Every structure is written in structure tokens, then in C-alpha cells.
Amino acid sequence: MITKTLGKIRGNRIGYNLGRGILSSPLVTKNKIYDSIYDKKIKRSIKKLEKEFPIGIDIGVTNACNSDCIMCPHSKLKNIGTMDMKLYKKIIDDCSGLKIKMVTLSFFGEPLLDKTLIEKIKYAKSRGLIVGFYSNASLLTEKWARDLIKSNLDGITISFDGYSKETYEKIRRGLKFNIVKKNILNLIKIKDL
User: Model's pTM, two decimal places?
Assistant: First the structure.
């Protein structure tokens, strides 16, 4: 009953402001009982967070990109490159040791520009991780499709923004709608063989 009433009071602007005013007043904030309760709540929250760990992480294996998408701040990046294998293996080994289950091998670039992508996928798979990445699929040739399927990649998310050629090419500047469409259909065909 009290919880419901307090919920209703906090649910409107006047009640919220009143509660905020009371809880931030010196009578409350400089009170040892309040301090003790607040400290216990913070410590409980920290302990809870310490027990939790992410089940997946994103690793930007390259920040190179072959598109100039209208919504992406990629052009503001100052340094463009590809992660070296030694650093990548250390990250994967650390993930495996921390019981992380999944890695996504993309962040601010097109993973298919990384010439060592297949080797990186295979290494993560050998450490027991679920592996995926995001791609614009413009470089997804038949060879890439076959190599990705053989690597046991778990998933690929393809960004295909726009139903029509005009819309797509306005958003994904520098890419060709018909080429990307063909690449996606080809990947599906090869996977189904």
C-alpha cells in the first residue's frame, strides 16, 4: 500500500520535485542514518556489477572503410589501420579466460578490408567463441563467401539500407546497390549448396 502510494506521488512532476527536494535537503543528506543506508546501497550495487561480466564484446579489427555513409562519423577518424595478429590473439585469449562467449569483429570499419580476417575468425573459433561481424557486403565476392563459410563464422549482419537503388546509394555513398544485392544473393546461394 505504501509503495503504491509513493509510486503515485513520484509518478507526477509535483510529487517528483517534492521528493527530490526532501531527499536533497541538508536534514537528509547530512544525516548519519541516511549516509549509512546510501553507502550500503552503493556497495550492494558495486558487488552486483562485479559479479556480472559481459557475454560478448565488439573488436574493431580494422577501422578502414570503403564507404562514406551519411550517418557515419568515420571521416573524422585520424588514424586508419588494421589490428595486428599478436594484439588480436591476446584479446581473444583474455576473452576466453574471462568466459566471454561471443565476439563481433567489427566496430568502425569494413571487416572485409582486413586481409587476416579469416585467420582471426578461425583463431577465435579455436578458443571456443561465437564469432560474427557487420559488413556492407560490397566486397563480399564469391571467394570471400566460400572462405567465410569454411571458417565456421557464426553470423554476419549485412547493412543494406534502402529498398531502392536511389535510396541505398544516397545513404551508402560510394557503394553500388546492384553489386551489393548480387553479393548478398550469391552468399545465400553458396551457403545453401
Answer: 0.73
